[in-house]
Model the fold of this input.
Amino acid sequence: MSAHLAARERVLVRVPDWLGDLVMAEPALRGVHERVRELDGELTLAGIPHLLELFDGVFEGARRVDARDTRAWRGHDLALLLTNSFRSAWQAWTAGIPRRIGAARDARGWLLTHAVTPALERGRAPLGIGRVGRGARYLPRPFGASCIELAHWAGCTVRDPRPRLVVARDAQRAAEARLAAFGLSRDAAFVLANVGGRAGGAKSLSSTIWGHALAGLAQPVVLVAGPGEEAALDEVRALAPRAHACAAPLAGLRELAALSSLARVVATTDSGPRHVANAVGAALVVVFGPTDPRHTADHTQSTTALRVPLECGPCHRERCELTGDAHMRCMRAISPEALRAAIEARLVHAERVATA
Done:
């Protein structure tokens, strides 16, 4: 049984639930969409509804469904699973989808008809980064590249592997209106800083570091944070009073994309907004803590990475389990001076690119 798409088939793609992974999967989705249209088929994107809003205006004709609605999975000829969970493979199997393509991990290989086995690594930490593994573990590699490989298994060609997001006109107008309220034009050379973070999350950079780093910048600064992270805006502004905080909720991820496209530089932790900004062509300064940069090591020509290598990381844990001075040391080791210098250097480079 061939994994390649045939004419007039119905294809379901289970897209990632994490914002950053969803953006990195965009080239694979683009390739699948193009191939399905060539074959006069039907495409369904199954995921989290509010994240799928990022693709408004693209993937014409594709149906979008809540991935939790198992009934919506039925009637498809092929399922392409860009998530690695056991549940997604189980849903495709119980929905009776005859061909199921995905990565053979998390004990779900037997549920797939076409399984790609990820590469493993053993022993010492490779390339001088990463904790020494206990036996075999999956080789860290760019997530987007893995998605493209799965798309190729379905016979879909990905001509442009770089993630790209289209900024909607209404989101662009909302972003320009927000800047105007701050006294900034759309052409202002401002820094957009994503200063939010999950409370207690291992990838959160303290408001103290953000505030001291941003206070010394000569350029205008606009602060954003995710839902439930608004307290960080007040904390950073207390230390950087000249910064403009987007206190009112953004008009969804689409306005975040628009603001990122207008900013001269976007500063953020290694989180979902980082990938949104990269996909609209922004210059970036990214702070890495517990995450391994090899998982997102492609398409970083306009990215400055800040990271302090430690013996305990990268651990990829949601919360730091260490105590005392070792607690979240990978994030606390990033000094405000180093962060400010990285932003200033990226600003100089971005200015040269803009005037070239």
Notes: Residues 142 and 295 are 4 Å apart (CA to CA). The two ends are 53 Å apart (CA to CA). The first strand starts at residue 10 and ends at 14. The chain has a mean pLDDT of 92.
